[in-house]
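PROTEIN DESIGN WORKSHEET
SECTION A - STRUCTURE
LENGTH: 523
TOKENS:
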């Protein structure tokens, strides 16, 4: 206990449990909540999808959040440090999670740069200058997209806001956990809630909004008998909550020894899902308005326009903003919401990488944040700030999310469950520090059921990519992006463990002690 308290004393921590909770919610709520969830619901049974979604939330989302919290809280470190303390030769798996976060943050910042640009474009509806429409403006005038293939031709309209985004997050990250991350989330999350709620209320009063909501939530009960609908539900929960690739693990490592893990995981998970449903209301109310203006059903409008992803935000919504009363204000609210939600998620991704670098090399918070931000900025500008940026971003985002994150999650749970045999220890740790206790059903979900579902998702994804490719991209370009991404991930994960740690990280005693966890009350 004394050794643990001495170790904890030199480590940053959240000032309050509420500060941690807001940061966890900020990480979970991101771009995917706004532009992915509504489309997933619509394509997978409408209102009927809510049932598998809730099942996935309860059987995968909340339990896996507890898994990440327990790992970070008990072994107090970034993914490489935590996995090193559990098994000396498993540090590499921690660096896989760090590398995945680094890849994601390099293009995530670019999307935020787009959102920042469109926030200003909304004021004068700049996209109306292109007679061919909003899609032509986004792809041609703004991003200047060329044929798939790597180039050094930069896009000034992307580079300048991108540099500004990196400058903002660097300042926040360099201030540390309490003065930077915690304070930023205490400002951004309430702000996001207010701004987004105003936008949704405005959307609900648009003509045709009810038709959009009917299209979103009218249940197709037959969809429940299709395996792909259940897979989509687990995928949405898994990706949305930022679990299993180091974020929640790292955040939990800054909690104080006595922290209420289990209830916090439940609150964070349900807050994230509530925001997703709110986003669905706002997006489809708006789409219902636009479909009505064009004399179409939602299905007809959806066939001709994107209702999910990048296309929804930067092609379809600008088109809607141009036609609706008070469109400029609605556009500012929408893109401001994207920007805030994205920044809180970007900060969490950066913290994983920065914490790992800081612990490995013994750097100060500011120096680690500066080094990581500088490297990420270079990659962002060189790879995604060019005329090929949209193409590269689309492919790399797809493969790193569907292969990298899922693969790392399966490997981590397999290691903890079967090799290290620490799953029961983590469950007892949760029960020791929490007011809400979990039974052995938690071991079955985290150690067996959820990894089995993720393995099915991974196998289906690999088969689809191998036989069909992705997005109609040339095979050579798709292969270059995929192979290049995973060469980077594995190169980082196998070389950094060869570097000696700045301090003796193996001399560590977890809190609470094993003898305390063996008390009957916590079994």
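SECTION B - SEQUENCE
RESIDUE ASSIGNMENT:
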């Amino acid at each position: 206990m004394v050794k643990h308290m001495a170790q904890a004393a030199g480590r940053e921590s959240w000032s309050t449990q509420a500060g941690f909770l807001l940061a966890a919610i900020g990480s979970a709520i991101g771009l995917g909540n706004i532009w992915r969830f509504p489309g997933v619901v619509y394509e997978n049974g409408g209102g009927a999808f809510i049932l598998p979604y809730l099942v996935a939330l309860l059987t995968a989302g909340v339990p896996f959040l507890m898994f990440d919290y327990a790992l970070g809280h008990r072994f107090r470190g970034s993914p490489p440090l935590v996995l090193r303390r559990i098994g000396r030769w498993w540090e590499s798996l921690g660096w896989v999670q760090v590398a995945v976060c680094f890849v994601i943050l390099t293009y995530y910042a670019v999307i935020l740069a787009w959102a920042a640009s469109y926030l200003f474009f909304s004021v004068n509806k700049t996209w109306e200058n292109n007679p061919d429409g909003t899609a032509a403006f986004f792809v041609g005038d703004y991003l200047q997209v060329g044929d798939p293939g790597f180039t050094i031709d930069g896009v000034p309209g992307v580079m300048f806001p991108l540099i500004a985004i990196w400058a903002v997050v660097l300042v926040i990250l360099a201030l540390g956990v309490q003065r930077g991350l915690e304070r930023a989330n205490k400002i951004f999350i309430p702000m996001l809630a207010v701004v987004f709620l105003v936008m949704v209320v405005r959307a609900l009063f648009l003509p045709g909004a009810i038709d959009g909501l009917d299209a979103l939530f009218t249940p197709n009960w037959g969809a429940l008998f299709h395996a792909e609908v259940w897979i989509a539900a687990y995928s949405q929960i898994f990706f949305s909550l930022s679990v299993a690739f180091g974020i929640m693990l790292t955040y939990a490592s800054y909690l104080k020894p006595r922290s209420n893990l289990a209830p916090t995981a439940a609150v964070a998970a349900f807050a994230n899902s509530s925001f997703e449903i709110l986003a669905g209301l706002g997006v489809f109310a708006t789409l219902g308005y636009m479909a009505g203006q064009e004399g179409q059903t939602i299905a007809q409008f959806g066939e001709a326009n994107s209702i999910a992803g990048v296309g929804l935000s930067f092609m379809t919504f600008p088109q809607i903003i141009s036609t609706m009363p008070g469109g400029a204000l609605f556009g500012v609210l929408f893109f401001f919401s994207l920007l805030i939600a994205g920044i809180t998620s970007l900060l969490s991704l950066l913290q994983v990488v920065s914490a790992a670098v800081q612990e490995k090399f013994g750097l100060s918070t500011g120096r680690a944040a500066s080094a990581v931000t500088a490297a990420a900025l270079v990659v962002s500008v060189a790879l995604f700030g060019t005329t090929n940026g949209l193409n590269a971003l689309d492919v790399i985002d797809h493969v790193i999310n569907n292969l990298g994150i899922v693969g790392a999650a399966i490997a981590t749970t397999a290691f903890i469950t079967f090799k290290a045999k620490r799953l029961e220890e983590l469950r007892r740790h949760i029960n020791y520090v929490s007011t809400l206790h979990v039974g052995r059903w938690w071991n079955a979900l985290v150690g067996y059921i959820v990894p089995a579902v993720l393995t099915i998702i991974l196998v289906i994804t690999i088969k689809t990519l191998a036989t069909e490719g992705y997005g109609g991209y040339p095979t050579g370009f798709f292969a270059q992006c995929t192979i290049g991404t995973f060469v980077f991930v594995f190169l980082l994960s196998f070389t950094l463990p060869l570097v000696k740690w700045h301090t003796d990280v193996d001399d560590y005693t977890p809190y609470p002690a094993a003898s305390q966890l063996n008390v009957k009350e916590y079994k």
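SECTION C - NOTES
The radius of gyration is 23 Å.
The CA atoms of residues 189 and 353 lie 22 Å apart.
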